[in-house]
Amino acid sequence: MSDKSLEMFRTLASCGNNSATGRIFNTSHSTVLRTIDNLETYLHTKLVNRDSTPLTLTETGLFLVNLIDDEMCTSQQIRRYICETGSPQIRIYFSFPVSWHTVSDRLGKLKRNDPSIRIKPYVADKIRIRALMKERIPDITILPDEVCIRNYRIVESVNNYEWGIVASPGLPLTDKIYIESDNLKKTPFIIPDEQSCIDPIREWIKDDARIEKADTYNCYDVLHGMIKDGYGCAFAPLEAKESLEQMGLVFYTCYPRIFTSIYFYSRWYKDMSDELKDFFEHPDISLI
């Protein structure tokens, strides 16, 4: 990809005409066509829509023009863009109770470092996510437990994912800034529909029978409705505190504190951007 071919392409983008571009470069119409053909062959993508008059640019052609105008055109940048648009979405699957807030800041920074990355989040239960991982569908998954599936590996774990108690403001549970299991005697519980949370919650309550009788929920909207309808109080992640309080609920910190773990998995694949490759290979770098 020579400077002259880029200059000719930029001129063609401005003129919209092969003959006019040839006159500016003092060359033939066929030479302009051949130069653009060679450039497209080199980049393995179409830059110009030839079936319109004047000629128009493809999305990749527009991107290349902007790079040239900003005086920062390199083969690496345009190839990265082509790879990203060829697979435009980074598919991230996470299961409840893993809050989107857990990863949103990190992924936001990833996006700011490389705006060409398109992030698409999906919510599904962990059984469904495991099935999708076996089909190699997700690029990144976030799960509340460890799994061993070919082509995926853990790139990060969060071991202090804290839980608290959520209740209706009309149901005062304690006058302290934290809550203990003794404050909840004869209180019906709502727990997440997630088996990995049950053991630490059971340990905190010290009453197996009450857990067996608990209602469950699978999203915060359902949780809000159940509490408002008098189903009881609920266990929820600390990271959801702000959102739940905006719904008119009260959040209590547990004592002793309840912790679970969550795990970030990535799938290695080719043609990824440099920033995403750093995220996959070195999750502890400053990007995160």
Task: Please summarize what this structure is.
The chain is α/β, with parallel strands linked by helices.
Ordered list of secondary-structure elements with their pairings:
Elements: H1 3-15, H2 18-24, H3 29-43, E1 48-49, E2 56-57, H4 59-69, H5 75-86, E3 90-94, H6 101-113, E4 119-123, H7 126-134, E5 140-143, E6 152-167, E7 178-179, E8 189-192, H8 195-205, H9 208-212, E9 215-217, H10 220-228, E10 233-237, H11 241-246, E11 250-267, H12 274-281
Parallel strand pairs: 3-4, 3-5, 7-11, 8-9, 8-10
Antiparallel strand pairs: 1-2, 5-11, 6-10, 6-11
Helix pairs in contact: 1-2, 1-3, 2-3, 4-5
Description:
Mean pLDDT is 78; it is low at 284-288. The chain is built from 12 helices and 11 strands. The protein has helices spanning 3-15, 18-24, 29-43, 59-69, 75-86, 101-113, 126-134, 195-205, 208-212, 220-228, 241-246, 274-281; strands spanning 48-49, 56-57, 90-94, 119-123, 140-143, 152-167, 178-179, 189-192, 215-217, 233-237, 250-267. The chain is of the alpha/beta class and 288 residues long. The strands form 2 sheets. Strands 3, 4, 5, 6, 7, 8, 9, 10 and 11 form a 9-stranded mixed beta sheet that branches. Strands 1-2 form a two-stranded antiparallel ribbon. A hairpin with a 6-residue loop joins strand 1 (48-49) and strand 2.
